[in-house]
Design brief:
six-stranded mixed beta sheet; globular; 14 helices; Rossmann fold; alpha/beta; 2 domains
């Protein structure tokens, strides 16, 4: 299988068969549990455990910021008693900045032997925990192997194919070392994206422009022509507008999200790692289709980091993409299925593009799909 590639998809197929036959690594409700991390994710894990009748002994932090959280003690590793490490430990830290392999090593060094990682916890309490970016039970990958293989076959280089397989292995809990991995290439603006656009002023669309940080990075690297910068959050938009005025008189800041049509959407906060579009969100934002806002314009580069609405945003930009054939940089980590859903959509929309995946932060956060037109000068 895949004999033309240096990376073989059969390795993931075999791993999935093994995972399907393994017993789930569940927390035992008859034994006490310590939670490593007293941030929002750790607190939400605690609430799920208490609701299920578990005995939560308390929280562990390397440097405790508080001594009591949710009515439970918070201790440092040095303050643990010998009997404490006989309990179960739930890793309640889940973000892009703290590699999970290193957190597991800390727990093991302290003497814990029964350590449950975020994917173990989510497989047991996912309904209670709700949306958590890419976090899911193993069935999401096991049930979608054909789609993952189609994405694997669509990728342009072995580095991308290897990256896809390692992300899947990691999210299945079978490649913990991948937690610390990130590629050396800068995110969004790197050799993959900029070399094909060398020697010209770049007309740029930024969906999810935040406070203007990515736009400023691009403006410091290349000559930016027209720029359309979309950001629905009011505080972020104010910072974005200030930054854009300083950097480019030809930039247009729009206080809007991007989707597949005009609509008012609900938005949920992300508990420390951004947010997402959701039915039960507490914030209302307006969203538009890029095809409606830019009905005749041509653009060179589109970047989308739109909190889980990337699929809808691409649908709403189909005509713009077909007309302009821009370089695309699309976030792949907001939903578990993004790593195959988004590539499949773009393969259908852009059949003569080359596709790459690169990993830019820890724990498989900030994985990005780069879609590069094979003939950038074509109409």
């Amino acid at each position: 299988m895949n004999s033309d590639f240096g990376v073989d998809f059969a390795s993931l197929t075999a791993l999935c068969a093994q995972v399907a036959g393994d017993e789930p690594r569940r927390l035992d409700p008859q034994r006490p549990v310590w939670i490593f991390g007293a941030g929002q994710f750790g607190r939400d894990v605690c609430a799920a455990l208490l609701e299920a009748g578990f005995d939560v002994a308390g929280f562990i932090e390397t440097t405790p910021r508080e001594r009591m959280v949710l009515g439970l003690p918070v201790v440092s590793w040095a303050e643990l008693e010998p009997e404490h490490v006989k309990a179960q430990l739930a890793v309640g830290i889940f973000n892009r900045g703290m590699p999970l392999d290193q957190l597991s090593e800390l727990a093991s060094a302290a003497g814990f032997t029964e350590i449950r990682m975020p994917w173990d916890i989510y497989a047991q309490f996912g309904k209670r925990l709700g949306w958590r970016f890419w976090l899911s039970g193993p069935e999401v990958i096991l049930d979608n192997l054909p789609a993952i293989e189609r994405t694997f076959l669509s990728l342009a280089d072995d580095e991308s194919r290897k990256c896809l397989l390692q992300i899947c292995e990691f999210r299945l809990g079978r490649n913990l070392g991948y937690a610390s991995f990130s590629h050396d290439e800068p995110q969004y603006f790197n050799a993959l994206t900029l070399e094909s656009l060398a020697g010209k002023a770049i007309d740029y669309v930024d969906g999810g422009a935040y406070n203007g940080d990515t736009f400023l990075e691009l403006a410091n690297l290349v000559d930016v022509g027209n720029a359309w910068l979309f950001e629905p959050d009011p505080e972020n938009f104010a910072a974005l507008a200030t930054a854009a005025r300083r950097m480019s008189p030809r930039s247009v800041c729009l206080p809007l999200a991007v989707a597949d049509a005009y609509r008012i959407l609900s938005f949920s906060g992300g508990n420390g790692e951004g947010g997402t579009i959701s039915d039960d969100g507490t914030v209302r934002i307006a969203a538009v289709a890029l095809d409606d806002v830019l009905p005749t314009q041509r653009v060179d580069f589109i970047k989308l980091d739109v909190e889980g609405a990337e699929i809808q945003a691409l649908r709403g930009a189909a005509q713009l993409i077909r007309r302009s054939r821009p370089v695309l940089a699309i976030s792949l980590y907001h939903r578990p299925q993004d790593i195959w859903d988004i590539p499949e959509q773009l393969v259908a929309l852009c059949p003569d593009y080359q596709f790459y995946i690169r990993q830019h932060y820890y724990n498989s956060f900030d994985s990005v799909l780069y879609a590069i037109p094979e003939r950038t000068g074509a109409a």
